[in-house]
Structure formats: C-alpha cells, structure tokens
Amino acid sequence: MHGKPFVCALVLALAASSASAEKGSPAFARKPAAVRDGKVVRVSFAVDRATDVAVFVEDGAGQVVRHLCAGVLGRNPPAPLKVDSLEQTVAWDGLDDDGKPAAGGPFRIRVGVGLTAKYGGAAFSEQGGPNHITNVEGLAAGPDGRVYVIDNRSGWLYWPAYAVHVFRRDGSYERTIKPFPSDLPVERVKAAGAFRNDRGYLNPIIHRALGMTFYPYEDEPASQMAVTGGRLILTAVPSQSPPTTNPMYRGIAAHLAAIDLEGGVPNDEYAGPALGKGLVYRGERREGGARLAAASDGKHVYLVNIGHRYYQRGYKLQKHHVVYRAPLPAMGPAEVFFGDKTDSGADKTHLTEPMGLAADGKGLLYVADFSNNRVVVLNEADATFVGAFDVEAPQWVAVHPRTGAVYVHSKDRLIRFSGWHDAKEEASLNLGSARKGLIGWRKTAQRLTFALDASADPAVIWMGLALGAHPLQRCEDRGKAFSDLVPARCFKSPRQWRPASDPAHRMVLCRVDADGGDRLHVLDETTGRTRTMRVPRGFGNNQGITSRLDREGNIYSTAAAGGIWKSDPTGKMIPFPATAKDPKLKGHLPGGSSGTTAWERDFSIDRHGDIYAKVRGTQYHGLMHVDVFAPDGRLKRTVLWGVTDGAYGPRVDPAGNLYLMECVKPAGWRFPEAFAPYVTDRWEKHWYDWIYGSIVKFGPAGGNLWLKSRRPEKDHPKADPVPLPDTLPKKQVASSLRGDENRIQGALWIHPGVSHVGDMGIMGGGEHCHCTGCDFDVDDFGRAFAPDNGRQRVTVLDTNGNVILHVGGCGNQDHCGPDSYVRDPDDGRLRPRRADDPKDLASPFAEPEIAFSWIIGVAATDRHVYVADTLNRRVLRCRLGYAAEVTTEVK
What we know:
Number of domains: 3
Number of strands: 67
Strand content: 35-45%
Largest sheet: 6 strands, antiparallel
CATH class of the largest domain: Mainly Beta
CATH topology of the largest domain: Neuraminidase
Oligomer: single chain
Structural class: mainly beta
CATH architecture of the largest domain: 6 Propeller
C-alpha cells in the first residue's frame, strides 16, 4: 500500500463492513492442510465468504511461535495473502517471530476465520460484578426505600466525572442510572443528545472531552440531592465555558438538572435555566456542595450553600446566608426564600452559613444554621420563623415525617432529637472513625454526606464518605441508640491505569491504585499467575508514572520528569550502562518525559529490547521526535523526526514496522461522518475534531511530520523537524489545532477514526489537556487495537489498515456479560443471577455484552484484549476467538 492515497483505508473499511453484513458466520469451504515442501510448509485453505483470517504456527506445547499472517481478504489483503481470492496458500519458512529457526516441535498450524471478542470478566481485581463504588459525594433517599448515590468515578480531583448509583434499604446494590443505562429507549435520553448508531447501540454525545461527560451540563455535585415526583434533582453547570473563555474549562453558572429514577431525561432539556445572575456552587472541599430539599408540596426545591464566586488565592465561594427556592418542573430561576444574601445574623429573619435543610412533608422546613449553632424551623407557606433549637455546628438535618424525630450531623456526631419543640437528645453515634487512618490533606478533605430513609421501620441513616475503603455505610435507628455503621453490600473499585503488554504479548502489566496503595500487577498469561510489586520510582517529578515491560519481565517507567528508568521484575533499579555515570541522567534515558503531570506519556520496547521514546523539542507541547535507544541505553537513531506531543506509540511489529496513534487525519476529514447529524454545537464540533485522530503506519525507515502553525510568530525556528530524503513520499494531512499546510512523510497508510488523542501543541496554549486520552496496542500480526471513545469501542485493523472488527459499545458498569444483574421474576427487582433462575431469564444489560464508557488504555495478547475504562472503573478482559478455527498437524 506504500505510496497509495490515504483514502483507500476508508474504502477498505466500507468493503469490510459490507462483508460483515452477510448472514451467519464465516466458515471454511475447505479445511486447512499443512504440507511440507522442501524447507517450507505450505498451508492451504478456503473460506466461504470475504472475511478476515489468521494463521498461527504453534509448538508442541501449544505456544505460538510464529504469527504467519492475518488480515481481511479482498482487494487489499496483507501479504502473503492473495488478492480477491477465497482460496489461500501461504508458506512457512520454519522461522519464529524473531527470525530464528523455530524450536519446540512437533509443530501445528492453526487457522482462524472471523475474529470475535467475548466478555472475559474484569482483570487485575479480586472482585467482579457491577456492585462497586468509588468516592461518595452526595446522597438522597427516595420514598420507596432506595438511596441515590453520587460517585466520583474518575477519582481525580482536577477532572472529576460522576455517576449515580441506586442501593436498596438493606444495603444491596441495584443499578447505575448515570451515565444513563444503554437499555433505555433513545427517546428517553434524547435531551442529552444520545442516538442509535449504525450498530444499533445507544451512542452518547461527548459534550466536553475533559469532563468525560455525556450530558450538556456537568455535575457540580450536591451533597444532598432531592427526590420528588419520580425525579432526581441534581446540581449542574454548563459543560462548555462561554465562547469568549477558555474551552478547556466548563462553565460555572448554577443550574438544576433532572433525571428520572431509571436514568432517563424526563424534560425537554436536561437542565433548567440559570438559577440567578452570578450564582455558583463551588465551595470549600471540606464543606461539600449545595444541599437540596424537595418542598412538601412537590412544586419547589430548596437550596443552601450556594453563592457568588470571588478570587483570593484561588476561586472561593462567597456564601449567601439564605435559603433559595426554585420552581418545579421548570427548575429555575431561584428566588430568596428566607434570609439575606449579604447580611448574617442569629435572629428570626437571618441565617449565618446555612449548611443543610429538610422538609417534613407537613409544611415545615428545617434549616441547619451552621455558624449560629442551631436548627431553624420555617413555615413553608409564608417563609416565617417558627422556632429553633440549639445544636453545635449542624451540617445536615433530616426529619422523620411520621414521628417528627430530627436527625442532625454535628461535628463528629450523628444525633437524634425528639423533635424541634423542646428538643431533647435521644441517641447519638460517634463518627470519628470516618477520619481514622487519614493524614495530611486527606484528613481535612474527608467529607461526610447523609440521607434518611424513613420509608419503613426501623429508619435507616446512610452515610457517604469522599475518601476511605468503605465509601458508603448505613446504620439503623434502634430507638434508644443507633446500630453500628456497616458498609453497603458493594466493593470499592480501584483506579486501574493503562495496561500494557510485553513485546511478545504474553504478559500484561497494569498499575492499580486501591485506596492509596499504588502497585504494579503483572499477569503472565502462559502460567495464569500475577505478581505484584511497588511502582518503581525515578528521580524528579514522579507524577503520572507510565510503565512498560520487556519480554523478560523487566519494567521500564517514565513520569512527568526524570526520563525513562529500568528495574528488574522485583522492582530493583537497573541503571542503563550508557548513562550510569552521567551526573544528570543517573542511569536514566533522556526521553519519555513530557513535563506534564498526568498519564499521557507513551513509549515502547520492541522484541530486541530497543526502546522507542518521544523526546521533547525546544518548545513545550511543540513537535517532538522519537529516538531509538539500544538495550544498554545508547542512542541508536531518530526514527520519527516529527510527532505531536499528543501522539501515542510507536508500537513495533516483528517486521520492524512502526504504528503511531497520531492527532493528524486525511485532509478535509474532521471526525466520523456518522456524528454529523448529532454534533451540531460549536464546541461539540470543536471537541470531536480535537479528540479524533488516526492510526498511521510507517515502514522501518520511519518518517516525519510537518505541522504549520496558525500563529507562525509563536513557532520556535529550532522546533522544525529535520527533513528525510525526498524519496519518501509526502501526503497532505489535517490537524484540529493547526493550519492546512500540514504534511506527513514516509507513512504507508493512515486510518482515521480513533480517539481520544489530542494535540496540545502550538495552538493548544493551555486550552486543552490530553490527560484523559488513551493509548493503543499492536499484536505480532501487525493488527492494531485502537480506541474509539466517540463510539465507546475498540477498532481492530489489519496491518494494511483494513477494519477487521469493532469490539464493544456504550454501557455503564451494569454491563457485566454473564455476571450482569437480572430482574427477579417475582418482584421485578434487579439482583444477581441465581443458580435456580430460569435459563431463559435475560438481563436488561445483555447488550452490548462488552461495554465501555471512557477508554484510557488498550493492551493485546494472542488470547485477550485488556481495555481500561476509567468511568466503569475496571480493566475489561475481552476474550479473542474466531467464528471457525481448525488446527492441523504439519505433514
């Protein structure tokens, strides 16, 4: 394909799609035969339709020693497959993937047709299933005994992303309703922009890439949400900043949003109007977000702990000393219900820093008047003062609608009072254990949230924790005392960083952060064993460490600063001999580190131990180049003279070809045409253009990339890439952040449609961050496994750029294949499948079987693809197979 127009990759993709549309699964028309012919073995077979094929050579133990060929049959199959033929004969020369005589016979030939991927469970986690949670930042109890939990799924302070889970009053997990479930009819989430894609799956719109959000407004989570009229009322801000500001950031104007109790969007718009001019939610972390309470008549919602933003060594919240009220279902604007915005006080008309509130269902509103050390009772009908009782620093208040008992969170205690009139303390619970074991900023950042479930006896109090091993707990009101707090029936999901396979694709590494304990896990697929060790640390800024393996299991790491360092399989440092005596490098390599703080860095180790690493140029976030270092650390050559700072790779196949996931794409191509009817907003177009790039293949000679800045005066003259010989062809390409005078040199082909990959380059200027980006992998056939976050799937390409397969679709954590919850035939509740369930009892989460929300990493072996999903908080193992497969002895 060398020298052909780049658009041929798109034509081939259409051809592959047409072939896959045939009914039934591909099969052999003539089974494979392997016959020795002198020094070679000739493998012949025939298939019944145009499909993809793969030919392996296995030793006597069943291990693959040679990946002979794989690809899509048709007009442009990879060599040595014949063009436009369903009958194939390929020859094996007796060598292994390293070019050495194969050892370990007798040998067998395995031929597969029609690559498939099946759900293989979660990897690098001791527990599986949908019932997991991360950090609780808000709660609300419904009238039916269910509690709604807002959960920071990213676990990342800078770019949080939230989910809403549902638990039953006995503590058992039921489902996740935000992000919306994929089993909903598209009409119920149309207000969020979702649509059905060409594969029939529900497809969300990404409204802001850095927020990883599928809604036009993002959560600024309320510590206390409201449930009323079959809807969950949330606090939200616009997903996009105003057009005149930096698109990196979301808006700050306070809004209310609503979802129904199954995750649908019940209104024509997801959110209501701005609550008021200048009103924002942002508060101090220790105090949490806004608190909401539904009015007794169901026609309004009350809000506290909101105000105006001001700047004083960072943005702060100028809290208003008032209770706001907003109409339902309009959800705004808000009006002052009680108190004064600027004047505080402790009399019958003022409040000072109200922090919680609750309506009793009978016309009274209770307000936790934090700085006045009291709970105030107001008349909902006319906003008049009814009474108050003393309690130290109240932050949350709830009232039992039947008994009139009042529950208050006061400092490190949960207290039940007899009522507001002549209030007497009847029971209390010490909450000091919530901060036990936390030190430094974690101790001060710990935040407690509460909800009261009074739907049945005994009443249940739920407590959420922003940090800790058990982020959701519950206790019961036993009358004279509270029961002990016990964790909900779920497990805490760890943060799992980008997995990576070794150059022979038999081991997989993953960094796992389980409640502050940062470890590397290395799975050996040959033995099934996993070894665990501490993450090796280099010198300098160790933020965002990325690690890779060589084929012996040694570990290579890089971070924001400090280059690349090496350690043995136990984590012991091994200095590179070539730089061991360098006083600055100290045994590290001068590459890999990009200077930024998250996990977007990438580098590769090939089968021979050579290290391929990006090296920064003279401009921060400007063009970079890729150097190749020998196993001892010596610089061998520059192989790619120009790449963007957002590029991933290169990955190297056994033939020495280089594969790059790059921010460029064919000229005139912005993002997949399938999004055109749905991505119509200015900033949505901007984000889709930015996150979509291409897989680019170069030969072993490497290549080059020229990108012409739209602001040439900002270019540093030394940042220009070094030209390669003119014998290598150049093609025009496009990029989201730069002008049209862009060229790529030496590329064999370019296949657009992969994401998330974005350039912060010269036009980035701090407007973007590729910290939420994703890498990819290439197996020993040269098949690329590349993410497509816009369609929540992994695309598999053969070594000629033909589409083999799309793996997965959109789904939240409830999509767990055979482990998905089912509806109980008796009461309709979602629960784990039981052994005595009818065999035909289907789960509503059966499709898609493999589901992703936001992919941040992909690693491939011969047996599986491992996909890290930061919103579903798991590394999903996808089991590779074939629609038909035959193994034959060499005759």
